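agent> fetching stored inputs for the nicotinamide-adenine-dinucleotide docking request
agent> found them:
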Amino acid sequence: MKITVVGAGAVGASCAEYIAMKNFAAEVVILDIKEGYAEGKAMDLMQTASLNSFDTKIVGTTNDYSKTANSNICVITSGVPRKPGMTREELIGINAGIVKNVSENLIKYSPDTILIVVSNPMDTMAYLAHKATNLPKNRIIGMGGALDSARFKYRLAEALGAPISDVDGMVIGGHSDTGMIPLTRLATRNSVLVSKFIDNERLKQVKEDTKVGGATLTKLLGTSAWYAPGAAVSSLVQAIACDQKKMFPCSVLLEGEYGLNDISIGVPVILGKKGIEKIVEIELTDDEKAQLKESAAAVRKTNGLLDA
Ligand SMILES: NC(=O)c1ccc[n+]([C@@H]2O[C@H](COP(=O)([O-])OP(=O)(O)OC[C@H]3O[C@@H](n4cnc5c(N)ncnc54)[C@H](O)[C@@H]3O)[C@@H](O)[C@H]2O)c1
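agent> prediction call returned; pasting tokens
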């Protein structure tokens, strides 16, 4: 298994580290445009191998795509992160050009690869990767829902006073402060609906805290977060590399599913060796359907900026 991570910044390096620590890949190539940066990150990470007991070989390169040839999975984290007070959508001006160029270069050297798009605004960048590469829809996966769901579980556990391993929950919709939809109705503590433990007001608060999960961290850190994003990407990569058939909410090109067409947005999918092996259509309430429709309208508005 060969995995490429483009962008040796905070998220890319964290993602490469978690992949290596999970010890399922033969090689991770990190590529960055900044001279020497990916080589430095790769060398630093390789010097943790004997301490952290992994055998994955990590290689860094400055923009030499030939080093990424025949990657099974490529992760795109290149681009600028947001600063405090910014929305993810505001990054489109810089990141669209980067993601288009990077995805075209990756496909040249790894025509059979599965692409995982992380750069923001992620749903629009995943849609752009489709337009730029024309890959089948099962091979382009936008990562957002896995992270948002992890943040949702963190907030649920906090509200319940329970360990995180006790709770389960999922976030669908667009990966944005206003567009994401934490499915509070379906969240459980050991298969019991969380509404048995906390009242509606507290649950509403959990939902709001989840939606601004990224913005809260950006304010604290001065830039966007990287540990949980890196861990979330590594979980998707592992599910594909190890053919786990695990279910995650991911941004995927919809063709009629959930009543939506020609848009990439977060819905539950099964991940295995073919990438997205199935889109899971769950029953939503009218209110949740309306929220998804509104979220999709916002993503479409951002997609519209691609032609501007
Ligand atoms: N989808 C998600 O859930 C999620 C979560 C966190 C961050 N993000 C996004 O991921 C992106 C990266 O965030 P970060 O915190 O790692 O930023 P960062 O600035 O730390 O790293 C970005 C890296 O990309 C590199 N880069 C820029 N242009 C490039 C190009 N053309 N080719 C190769 N490398 C290039 C930069 O040199 C830099 O090292 C941002 O767009 C951020 O908004 C997404």
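agent> quick read of the result: The CA atoms of residues 14 and 230 lie 5 Å apart.
agent> awaiting further instructions
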